[in-house]
Amino acid sequence: MDGALMRVCIVSEGCYPYSSGGVSSWIHSMIQAFPNLEFVLVNIVSKQEQRGKFKYELPGHVTEVYEVYLQDSDWSPRRGSSRLKLKEEEWRALRSLMLNENVEWDALFEIFQKRRFSLDRLLMGEDFLRIAVEVYQRRYSQIMFSDFLWTLRSMYIPLFLVMGSEIPEADVYHCVATGYAGIIGGMAAHFYGSRLLLSEHGIYTREREEELIRATWLDGLYKNIWIEQFKKMSTLIYRRAETVVSLYPHARELQLDLGCPEEKARVIPNGISVERFQNLPQKSGEELEKVYVGAVLRVTPIKDVKTMLRAFADAKTEAPNLKLWLMGSLTEDAAYAEECVELARTLELSEEDVEFTGEISVPEYLGRMDFTILTSISEGQPIAMLESFAAGKPVIATDVGNCRGLIYGEEGDDFGTAGILVHVMDQMEIANAMVELALHPQERKEMGERGRRRVAAWHRIEDMRRAYGELYEPDAVPSAGAEEPAEIAEIKEETAYGRDRCKA
């Protein structure tokens, strides 16, 4: 490509710049870490109502933002009401996808990028129906065909929308998940011949599988149909990416189990600015009489805030000086957040017991906490835990993602236990852990110091920058004097539309 700056396209789904914390914070830090590169964003979101509703002020070297909507009814003007007739080679490519037999992804990309047609014409056409009948007869004849057909149509709508979306040209495509983001990455690499990288914070396919298994809106074999869809999408980017990054060794093992070639798989842990969490404001005055429990999270179901609240109410019967601080967005799932507020009232927890702060500057609060807690149903390698450790605070965390490794240490790490690991949704176990740390201040201090040493040794942002700089290109590695990125951006409702352009 022309131009002095290397162009990196970051492809994400449902996170940056629309939500704060977690993966969004990581992406923002990555962009800030490489001011000598030009960045373009491709953001996959659910609906057009999310257009431009950014919670981050984008850095100046983010020059374009493209939005892809999964719930649009179509991507192009209708051209008559006739049903679409595929060419023989196009039909074979579609058949390979729907049967999941040596999927001809490149041929599919050509269809959806170069043939502009109404999606309805394809999904209601004879060719799609013929293949659907074949899939049904082979695998799913025990269920009603009409339900099966509508399941297929609803499942392929978002995939086809993604394959028909506009893709910016870049030197490197960096996908932050498999799934639909991986489809865009694979498609871009096909058309532009660019390099393709993948960083998985959680194992996307496994997370979707867990969600589908728990889902009450979907029954039996229909869950299997959706699970297979996500697996075939992950296979594409695992095979085509030149490097596949995970955050910790067990995640790498999961990637290998899902078909990632071993020679491509690499572990690069999350990193934070450790120095940013030193010398933080501490409790003072009457606060010293309380034991502060901090939960840095988005108030959403996946964080299982309701179990946390119930466990906290139980813990207060033995440690009445406990106070819980819920520090994070209340707007990403406003209905769930309101349910949590109402649950606190039902549990007779006053505002003196539980405080919902909304989005805050974490360093301004974290130093005042005695320990932090994370009761998530699913996680990768939580930045909130790293920040807590950097501040010298122990963590109670559920046994998901890399929480076990962060609390106990991975191979070669002998710093010791830095918190308490609990089982998912185990109210009694979580309550007991809170009581344990509340009643033993010396234990809290020792655990927090172990966590501080662990993060300083293994999770420095400088090391993460260096590793990704080597993946982008050697000349992209930032100098030692580069400005440290802020982990949490200033939250603003304004958008970046006026700076360059935003493609939808």
Strand order of the largest sheet: 7-6-5-4-1-2-3-14
Low-confidence stretches: 75-81, 476-504
How many separate domains? Answer: 3
Amino- and carboxy-terminal Cα gap: 23 Å
* Beta content: 5-15%
Total number of strands = 14
Helical stretch tally:
18
The CATH architecture of the largest domain can be named as 3-Layer(aba) Sandwich
Shape: globular
For the record, what CATH class of the largest domain applies? Alpha Beta
Task: Give the structural class.
Answer: alpha/beta
Q: How much helicity do the residues have?
A: 40-55%
**What value does the Rg take, in angstroms?**
24 Å
Mean pLDDT: 89
Task: Find the CATH topology of the largest domain.
Answer: Rossmann fold
Explain how this protein is built.
- By secondary structure, this protein is of the alpha/beta class.
- Helices cover 42% and strands 14% of the residues.
- The chain has 18 helices and 14 strands.
- The chain has helices at residues 22-33, 88-99, 105-114, 119-123, 126-139, 145-163, 179-192, 204-214, 220-240, 249-257, 305-316, 334-346, 362-366, 383-390, 403-408, 427-439, 441-458, 461-472, and strands at 7-13, 38-45, 62-69, 172-175, 195-199, 243-246, 265-267, 291-296, 322-327, 354-356, 371-374, 395-398, 419-422, 501-503.
- Strands 7-6-5-4-1-2-3-14 form an eight-stranded parallel beta sheet, covered by helices on one side. Strands 10-9-8-11-12-13 form a six-stranded parallel beta sheet, sandwiched between helices.
- Helix 7 links the parallel strand 4 and strand 5.
- The chain is globular and about 75 Å long.
- The model is unreliable at 75-81 and 476-504 (pLDDT under 50).
